[in-house]
């Protein structure tokens, strides 16, 4: 996004602080509050803004363990496996990937043991998932 455009400046503020008020966004993007409201509504309608989220430091979550799991999927079962993964409560987010794995899943559970069980017993039991490669998150650095 071109940061000098009105849309770009508004998005820059939102990416820094998704909880910023219209007044704060207007001040930081050097536009009026009605302009912020109009652009945000338009970007939501166009699918540019698809949601708002909170960044979480896994180390601070004493009762939650998080892993990024690379998933290999048999191509003939890709659609069905992806549909099943999207329905799992433990899967916080799911991405397609051009890297070493076809899919990347952010998986959450109460602790490391439960997380291991979700991966071994739930993810790997889905027809078409051929391998799971977890990376357990420990400390957020940025």
Structural commentary:
With 142 residues, this protein is α+β, with helices and mostly antiparallel strands. It contains five helices and four strands. Strands 2-3-1-4 form a four-stranded antiparallel beta sheet. A hairpin with a 6-residue loop joins strand 2 and strand 3 (103-109). Helix 2 (22-29) packs across helix 3. It is elongated. The chain starts with 5 loop residues before the first helix and ends in a 6-residue tail after the last strand. One of its GO terms (molecular function) is DNA binding. InterPro entries: ArsR-like_HTH, AsnC-type_HTH_dom, Dimeric_a/b-barrel, LrpA1, Tscrpt_reg_AsnC-like, Tscrpt_reg_AsnC/Lrp_C, WH-like_DNA-bd_sf, WH_DNA-bd_sf. Keywords: DNA-binding, Transcription, Transcription regulation. Pfam families: AsnC_trans_reg (PF01037), HTH_24 (PF13412). Residues 9-72 form the HTH asnC-type domain.
Strands of the widest sheet, in order across it, are 2-3-1-4
Radius of gyration: 19 Å
- Beta-strand percentage? 15-25%
Distance between the termini: 22 Å
Keywords, separated by commas or semicolons:
alpha+beta, 5 helices, elongated, transcription regulation, DNA binding, transcription, Tscrpt_reg_AsnC/Lrp_C
């Amino acid at each position: 996004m071109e940061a000098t455009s009105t849309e770009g400046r508004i998005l820059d503020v939102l990416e820094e602080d998704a909880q910023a008020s219209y007044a704060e966004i207007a001040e930081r993007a050097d536009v009026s509050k009605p302009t912020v409201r109009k652009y945000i509504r338009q970007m939501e309608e166009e699918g540019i803004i698809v949601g708002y989220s909170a960044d979480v430091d896994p180390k601070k979550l004493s009762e939650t363990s998080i892993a990024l799991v690379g998933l290999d999927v048999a191509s003939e079962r890709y659609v069905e496996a992806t549909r099943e993964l999207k329905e799992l409560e433990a899967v916080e987010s799911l991405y397609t990937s051009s890297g070493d794995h076809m899919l990347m899943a952010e998986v959450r559970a109460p602790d490391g043991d439960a997380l291991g069980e979700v991966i071994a017993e739930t993810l790997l039991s889905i027809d078409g998932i051929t391998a799971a490669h977890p990376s357990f998150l420990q400390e957020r650095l940025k």
